[in-house]
Structures are given as C-alpha cells and as structure tokens.
Specification:
Strand order of the largest sheet: 7-6-5-8-9
Strand content: 5-15%
Shape: globular
Largest sheet: 5 strands, parallel
Number of strands: 9
Distance between the termini: 24 Å
Helix content: 25-40%
Number of helices: 12
Length: 333
C-alpha cells in the first residue's frame, strides 16, 4: 500500500482484499470488553475536519484510540485557518510537529491530494468536496461482503444525487475493482458531466429510470441510496422533494418489489439519511437495511487503513506478535 490514501483508484484489488481481511480481524475487537491493542502505540494521528461529520470523524477517532495511537481532533473553526492562514501553512505546521498521519475532510475537491504534496506524514482522504471518500467505499464493500460473500458478478445499484456525491465516485471504483456489476441511477439534472465516457471506459451502467433498473432482467443484490445534498445545491435540480421521492426514492412499494424478486437484497445508505426524501422510514428500518452495519464496519475498516499505512511502514515500531492476523478468519489476540 502506498504512503497515502487519497483515491480508491490508489488501491489494487490485492490491496483492497488485504485491507478488508485486516478489517475482519479488527472487527473482533468491537466484541471485546476491553477494546484496546498496542498496535499503534507511539504513533500520532490528527483528524482535521473542515466540514461537519459524525460517522467519519468519530470512527477515525475511535479507530486510532483503540489501537493506542495518540489521536487529536482539529476543526477549521478552532484552527489558524479561521484567522486567515492558508491550508498549506496549516498542514505544514501540523506536519512539523512530527505527526504520523493526517486525516482530512475538506470542502474543496483535490485538497487532500494537494496536502499530500506538502507534508511528510501519511494523508488519508476522509472526503474532499465532490471528489472521493475512499474509506467509505471500503466499509461499504466490507459490509456487502460480510453478507453476500465475494462481490464478483453481484449487481449493485447506486441511486440518487450523483453530481454532488464523493461516495458514489469512490464506490464505483472499489466495487468494480472487486468484480461487481454497478448501475448508477439519477435524474438527468443530477448525472455528473462526462459520466457517459467514464461509464464506457470503466464498464458500469447508467440509467435515468429507477424502476426499470429495479425491475430489470438482472436482479439487484444491493441498492445504495445516496443523500440528496441540498446544502451543495444552488439551483433547482428537481421541482419538489415530493417529485424526487416519487421518481427516485426507495419507497416501501419499491422495497416490497425488490424483496419479492430477491429476498436477500440489501439496502445501504452512507448517512446521514433524509428520511422521507431519498429513503422511506420503512426501507431505512427494514430487515434488509444494513445502515448500522455500515457504521460498525467503519471503525474496523479505518483501523485497518491506519494499520496498513502506519504499522506497515519500514520505520514503524515492532508490532507485538499476535496483535493482528492478516487473514479474514484470524482474530486479534
């Protein structure tokens, strides 16, 4: 694995498999009474978030602390950037304190890639603008594999606000890397520019008709509903919330049709959910929903990412024998 994790495209299939295998071992830690191992003792991880976050920020903090890293949370409001300091100066100042990893969420696409050019520590992209969110894609893949096994040939539909979604971009890459068949669905106004060329090059399907995809000849194994990001919208992408729900929401009626075709279909959502808009309460709380599984997987996957970036480097301190197994069936001891 490279020094940084900026894009899902940074990872080969073998590297994705290694991370997911390690996450399976890390997941066992969550069932322990004492949730702590010394794997990253002596390492320092900074979570620097320029946007609000609950799941990602909390899971990175928990992941670092459970592996005994010194984990510090920073926000733009409480940093020198609020006084006018540039991102470059702030990043280089933090790096000069000899930290080992910088986890960044930023509202500008490409910000994490730029920071990685300025610092010596490892940089992990926790979501940059409308670009990518690679650890979300990894935890989604982990959640799916824990339920359905290998993803080769599995049909996953990603539905919703594609234009503003970094989760969609990372998931398309990771799911295709693992051999899944992907169909993305959105109204024409929320289809990203240039997606036709991208879909042709990378081999995923696009559609404006959700019902045609859900009722099509290739049954859907999982449907991932994306949040309508109204805070990023400056114009009228759809006439009314009700019209969006009618055309592209996972309503109870659509869920019932999905289940009738495939009783094992899974429902995912990266959160936070707009209940009643892109997903109905019945779908969000259904037996098919694995939304909370995704949250649980987030800690294990981010532990695995930190482990591979920090404990796997040449200058890393020795890892106590038996701390982590590299096989899915292994366990932390």
């Amino acid at each position: 694995m490279t020094k940084h994790l900026i894009s899902s495209a940074d990872l080969t299939r073998a590297e994705v498999e290694d991370i997911l295998a390690t996450a399976a071992s890390m997941h066992d830690l969550q069932r322990r009474e004492v949730k702590k191992v010394p794997t990253l003792r002596g390492r320092t991880v900074i979570n620097f978030f320029f946007e609000d976050s609950t799941r990602t920020r909390s899971s990175f903090e928990i992941a670092g602390k459970w592996m005994s890293a010194d984990t510090i949370n920073l926000s733009a409001k409480g940093s020198s950037t609020s006084k006018g300091e540039s991102l470059r100066d702030t990043a280089m100042t933090i790096d000069a304190m000899a930290v080992d990893a910088l986890v960044i969420r930023h509202n500008a696409s490409g910000a994490c890639h730029q920071v990685a050019q300025w610092v010596r520590c490892s940089v992990i992209n926790a979501g940059d603008g409308m670009h990518e969110h690679p650890t979300q894609a990894l935890l989604d893949a982990y959640t799916l594999r824990s339920r359905v096994g290998e993803l080769d040939g599995r049909h996953v539909a990603i539905v919703g606000d594609l234009t503003h979604s970094r989760v969609f971009r990372s998931n398309v890459i990771t799911l295709k890397t693992l051999g899944a068949k992907v169909t993305v669905v959105a109204p024409p106004t929320l289809m990203p520019s240039g997606i036709a060329d991208w879909s042709e090059a990378d081999g995923f399907a696009t559609s404006w008709d959700l019902d045609a995809v859900l009722d099509g000849g290739d049954p859907v194994d999982a449907v991932m509903m994306l949040r309508v990001q109204r805070e990023r919208m400056t114009g009228g992408y759809f006439p009314t919330p009700r019209e969006y729900t009618v055309g592209y929401g996972l309503t109870k009626e659509r869920l019932d049709r999905l289940v009738s075709r495939n009783p094992d279909v899974l429902v995912l959502h990266p959160g936070p959910m707009n209940r009643g808009l892109e997903i109905s309460p019945e779908a969000a709380d259904s037996a098919q929903s694995v939304v909370l599984d995704q949250v649980s997987a987030g800690v294990a996957v981010r532990m695995a990412v930190l482990y591979h970036l920090l404990a796997g480097s040449d200058d890393a301190p020795a890892i106590p024998a038996g701390t982590v197994s590299a096989t899915p069936e292994g366990a932390l001891r």
